Structures are given as C-alpha cells and as structure tokens.
Amino acid sequence: MEGPVGGAASSWLIENADLLPSAGRALDVACGKGRHALWLARAGFEVRAIDRNPDAIVFVRETAQRLGLRVDAQGRDLETDPPPSLGVAEFDVAVVFNYLHRPLMAAIRHAVQPGGRLFYETFTTRQSDRGHPRNPDFLLKEGELRELIRPFRLLRSREGDFEGRFVASIVAEREG
Questions:
Q1: Is the pLDDT score of 2 beyond 60?
Q2: What is the pLDDT of residue 1?
Q3: CB neighbourhood size of 63 (10 A)
Q4: Which of 3.40.50.150, 3.40.50.300, 3.10.450.330, 3.90.226.10 would CATH assign to domain 11-173?
Q5: Which stretches of the chain are DSSP H helices?
Q6: For residues 21 and 13, what is the distance between their CA atoms, to the nearest angstrom?
Q7: What is the DSSP letter of 140?
C-alpha cells in the first residue's frame, strides 16, 4: 500500500495490520519522512512522530497538514543519556522501523499502554555482509529483538532475509 506521498509503508506493518487497534493514539519512533506516521494517520490514528532530523520533521508536518491528517511531528534527539521519556502508557500502538538504540527500548515499552501493540523491525548483524548499516550498535544479534521487547507478549515475529534485507520483525502486546 502506497503512503499518501508515494512512500510505501513497510510490508511488515501492512501484512500485520489486522493486529492494529481500530483507532487510537500511535507513536512513530525515528519516523524519518513519516511514511508510517502518515499511513497510520490515514488509517484514522492520532499520531505523534519523533525524529532528530529537523528537515524530516518539517516534511512530515507540511505533508500531514496538506493532507488534513492528525500528526504531531516533533524534533527530538532520541539518543540522549539518559534516554528521553516518550510518555507513560499514552499510546495504543508504537512503530519503530529501521532504527535501533538499545538504551531507548525501556522508554518505547513504557510509552505503550496495557493492551497496546508494538510493531518493530530493524536490521540484524547479517545485514552488514550486504552493506549498510555495518555498525554493530545498529544491528540486532540473532534472537535479540525478542529479548529487548520483554515483558511484552510476542504475537508475531520473523527473522531472516526479507525483500533483500536481513531483518528481525515483531508485533508484541503490552500485557496488563
């Protein structure tokens, strides 16, 4: 499914859209130019999109405004020490794609309300054989994503070579 400005949302999100709540508040962490934030807003979610790149945030804001979508795009450095708060049980769904900063994982989990869902997909160490990214700080070890989302309940997962990229992907639910 194409996004509102032609950027395709991740196939993982689309293939697992049946696990999205019917509506509510969504958080897009490290949103880039907002392909997932805009897709979720078009699906009826009220979205907060966060990224450190000010040009990307301006693009998301302007695109959402032009399309009449509810997206609160915020410029924020996600890699501070200590990690920033993303909210406490504020979101029905959180999405993270192609981004990994391990110290932020607790903040991501805390931002999801009980019964809320986390959609996460990023590169594994095997991706470095193909090129970008190569920095091990940005690459998951085998089985690591399942550990990082604990104590969330795993609903769906995959790990391997998909669409020419080595990734780990999950959909998980915060119990409670």
A1: no
A2: 39
A3: 21
A4: 3.40.50.150
A5: 11-15, 35-42, 54-67, 105-111, 144-148
A6: 13
A7: B
